[in-house]
Design goal:
Chains A, B: Belongs to the SIMIBI class G3E GTPase family. ArgK/MeaB subfamily. Chains A, B: InterPro entries: AAA+_ATPase (IPR003593), GTPase/Isobutyryl-CoA_mutase (IPR052040), GTPase_ArgK (IPR005129), P-loop_NTPase (IPR027417). Chains A, B: Keywords: Chaperone, GTP-binding, Hydrolase, Nucleotide-binding. Chains A, B: This is Methylmalonyl Co-A mutase-associated GTPase MeaB. The structure is a homodimer. Chain A has a seven-stranded parallel beta sheet with strand order 3-2-4-1-5-6-7, with helices on both faces. The first copy, chain A, has 14 helices and seven strands. In chain A, about 50% of the residues lie in helices and about 15% in strands. Chain A has a domain at about 50-255: Rossmann fold, CATH 3.40.50. At the A-B interface, helix 3, helix 6, helix 7, helix 8 and helix 9 of A face helix 3, helix 6, helix 7, helix 8 and helix 9 of B.
Chain lengths: ~325, ~325
């Protein structure tokens, strides 16, 4: 917990670009600190200035390498860049593995880049709630572009990707067939597909599969047609094309009016997630008590059905 | 929606093993039918009879093939088997891709096997809530073993795996290094690791990596030490060893008293998920209204911070 008088100082320093203050504010977000509402209130006026780019894909497709290369190109263009490497992590250990951070040391000495791993602390919905707050801190600290990198393409990751202005989905040849990509729901969330490791066998087939599936999708005129870009991030190849595709999407978002719509939907998701988080916290208080474990024992023994148990649990919950 | 008078008939027929009634009951679960509490109440007395086995792993490791082979071996042992292929699916299309079902047609003519794909309908937490209900239906229908196959190793999948008595985590050589496996939190949830496609290069390295990480983990005496089994499911090789490892884990669960503990924890998670689902549904009602969209527009514009917005949203929510 942070003493309340620290927050205005931290926010002021973060506004001036002090990396340690940014880091501390994001730690508050990650830890669900009681001072968060105060941080959010202080950051609210700076909301909506940064471009938020989501980057997701299955383990092994090269997300960290691609992120690293995108940072390089964006820095060359003069943008201040924030990176949030969001890690579903272990539900038990409560800590992020340092993999991403370790791999991205190239940029850590650059004062125009903030890099931060965040873990979910095992709370389902925790990432959806915390990520936009962390984005807000980075916006307040003057980042022009914020890359949110998520591991995997599960449900939680789809939700996080939906928090971005532009979502990149990374694929790699031989990582599973096209049906698997559709199964995970990535076809609908991707604004830009990046076929990474495009120098490997099977890259052309992956490219054709994705193009084929995009051709099947129904799209109204004026809708965005997802771009498919080939890259070899480890060699820096194709990264300019990825950045160009992001810019193109950004132009479309602005000219079509979708930027505003997306951001309002994002805010709605954020507010809902926070509200649910508060309810969940109250439920957690109940969980500590004997009510839930007693109900659970009855359900496990077949003496009570879970719906009836849920009703009894809710009866003990006060919302406000 | 199902007419209330249908439920007792469906349950009675499902108890007799009628596959169409089982299928209809699971559809009720999947669709969140209002008759579900009635179904759950009718199934409660049969709770806890089946052995529930979770099976998870990244796309492409061979989950469907392995499930198929496990069904074959379990059927040879005389067990009635239920399979739930849980599919995170698309948050937009609301329907499961038929991949798993298509691949598992070998067993569909066998009356001792129920096979069912379930989709999450895009609701975060929806799977956690629906899966145990579907398990309950299969228990009621007389299944001795229920395999719950989940795609990916994201947060939601970890949660689903925690609903099983025994969790198998499938890995394949070359699908990403050991650090990636730890990042996804599988080390903690696995009771049995299956290194599938063990005839491929790199299988020995994967085996050593996993054994090495297990050796690092702290474990009290009497704790279960996860088994690591090599298999080539596509050729039926090693599947007997997987079944043997499952049996060994089951014996340990019973002799150590962990079976009861796990099942009570499972019931607690189930009851919590149902209670949260009800709260979320009420929040969804709010979302339809103007309250949330008006709050979201203010948050997107930076006129209001999301915490203050969440407070205002919750003020409009009645729990009971």
């Amino acid at each position: 917990m942070t003493r309340s008088q620290d927050v205005p100082t931290l926010v002021a320093k973060a506004r001036e670009g002090d990396p340690r203050s940014v880091a501390r504010l994001i730690s508050l977000v990650e830890n669900g600190d009681p001072a968060l509402p105060e941080v959010a209130a202080a950051m609210a006026p700076y909301t909506g200035r940064a471009q938020v780019i989501g980057l997701t894909g299955a383990p092994g497709v090269g997300k960290s390498t691609t992120t690293n290369e995108l940072v390089r190109v964006l820095r060359e263009q003069g943008a201040r860049v924030g990176v949030l490497a969001v890690d579903p992590s272990s539900p038990f250990s409560g800590g992020a593995i340092l993999g991403d951070r370790v791999r991205m040391t190239e940029h850590t000495a650059d004062s125009g880049v903030y890099i931060r791993s965040m873990s979910s602390r095992g709370q389902l919905g925790g990432l959806s709630a915390a990520t936009p707050q962390a984005v807000r801190v980075l916006e307040g600290a003057g980042c022009d572009v914020i890359l949110v990198e998520t591991v995997g393409v599960g449900q939680a990751e789809v939700e996080i990707a939906s928090l971005a202005d532009t979502t990149l989905v990374l694929l790699a040849p031989g990582m599973g067939d096209a049906i698997q990509a559709v199964k995970a729901g990535v076809l609908e969330i991707a604004d830009v597909f990046v076929i990474n490791k495009a120098d490997r066998p099977g890259a052309d087939a992956t490219y054709r599969d994705i193009q084929g599936m995009l051709a099947l999708g129904e799209r109204a005129s004026g809708d965005w047609r997802p771009q498919v870009v080939r890259a070899v991030a480890a060699k820096g190849e194709g990264v300019d094309d990825v950045v160009a595709a992001i810019s193109k999407h950004r132009d479309w978002l602005e000219s079509s009016g979708n930027l505003r719509t997306r951001r309002e939907q994002r805010a709605a998701a954020e507010v809902s997630a926070l509200a649910l988080g508060r309810l969940r916290a109250r439920m957690g208080d109940l969980r500590e008590g004997t009510a839930l474990s007693s109900l659970a024992a009855q359900v496990a023994a077949g003496d009570l059905d879970p719906y009836a148990a849920a009703d009894r649990l809710l009866a003990g919950l006060e919302v406000s």
